[in-house]
Amino acid sequence: MIETDIIIIGAGPVGLFTVFEAGLLKLRCHLIDSLGEPGGQCSEIYPKKPIYDIPGFPEVLAGDLIDNLMKQAEPFKPGFTLGEAAVSIDKVSENEFIVTTAKGTKHSAPIVMIAGGLGVFEPRKPPVENLADYEDKGVEYVIKDPEFYQGKRCVIAGGGDSALDWAIYLTKNNIASEVSLVHRRNSFRGHLDSVQQIMDLADEGKVNLITEAEVVGIGGNGKVENVTIKHKTQGEFVKETDHFIPLFGLKPSLGPIADWGLEIEKNAIKVDTLDYSTNIPGVYAIGDVNTYPNKLKLILCGFHEGTLAVQSAFARIHPDKKNVLKYTTVNGVTGF
Ligand SMILES: Cc1cc2nc3c(=O)[nH]c(=O)nc-3n(C[C@H](O)[C@H](O)[C@H](O)COP(=O)(O)OP(=O)(O)OC[C@H]3O[C@@H](n4cnc5c(N)ncnc54)[C@H](O)[C@@H]3O)c2cc1C
């Protein structure tokens, strides 16, 4: 059981900044995210896009903003459970919630902050009949740790940046023993530079580039041993492999959050703007996941919501303690 003061579900920009604001009040946080990396939409959808409406930054890349938020949170030593979706919140007593992930990891705290953004990012899966039988047995939809593929044969499918980047990375760093890239079309959607690199690696015989083709079947005894590839004109053939990695992107869905007894409106959690509390006392919702009159889905607004929510959380955890607002400029962060 992981114990903390505030369990934050969602390690997007809003969840990360809330760690900082909670830290100023000496409240410890533990973040849970279904993705393998922190950063939410900023890291997953647009890490290289500049943002222009973060106060004090005329321009900042979304990925750099996340790096900075991680640095800002660091002095308060947040815990992380990454790559695991929170599937349930149970109130076990007046002052204790238990949040459990799909992998069974349990977290206990008096406060839960839901910073789940657009929800869980679910992988877009190819229509291969027995795909589910091989999930985590050689079929993976995200690459969490490239070293996992050391010395393995990999068939990657997809035509976007993710598929191209990982095919290049696993090949150029001599990680996988063999990399095949299967794509339905002849042209790719990724960056021109990545497309060129793949073409060069294919010409050098380092990547098997199989275009105008799709993976249509998987074979193997308890784990992936081969895939069946159907080529547009040449028909079907079987390719021996250890892993099949379809990288067709991720789509967001509110997921388990919708089943937690919270008041939901327009696919978002209704909150009281006094402190961004939900209809369940002790549970707050901040950032893109919440809704209220005049709500704007902006990072800046989420920062404000998290800041007010932790003030309210402090009063719940320490009903007898007076919280005096201090400026970070007076004592620095370490003075808190
Ligand atoms: C292309 C694009 C451009 C944008 N540009 C701007 C801009 O210029 N300025 C601006 O202010 N905003 C912009 N936005 C919006 C901004 O990205 C969002 O407002 C912001 O990401 C919201 O942050 P968040 O932390 O609330 O949620 P998110 O960033 O969505 O993070 C939520 C996290 O919660 C996780 N999660 C959800 N459910 C669970 C669960 N059950 N268990 C575990 N984890 C869970 C998700 O995996 C995700 O990592 C843009 C958005 C897009 C898509």
Q: What count of helical segments does DSSP give?
A: 7
Please identify the structural class as seen in this structure: alpha/beta
How many strands appear in the DSSP assignment? 23
- What radius of gyration results from the CA coordinates? 23 Å
CATH-wise, what's the superfamily of the largest domain? FAD/NAD(P)-binding domain
The shape is elongated
Explain what you see:
This protein is an alpha/beta fold. It has two domains: 2-121 and 250-331, 3-Layer(bba) Sandwich (FAD/NAD(P)-binding domain), CATH 3.50.50.60; 125-246, FAD/NAD(P)-binding domain. Helix content is 23%, strand content 29%. The chain contains seven helices and 23 strands. Helix 1 (13-24) runs parallel beside helix 3, helix 1 (13-24) packs parallel to helix 6 (299-317) and helix 4 crosses helix 5. The longest helix is centred in the C-terminal third of the chain and has 19 residues, at 299-317. The relative contact order is 0.17. The structure holds flavin-adenine dinucleotide (FAD). Residues 9-15, 32-35, 40-42, 45-46, 51, 53, 85-86, 115-121, 255-257, 287-289, 297-300, 302 line the site of flavin-adenine dinucleotide.
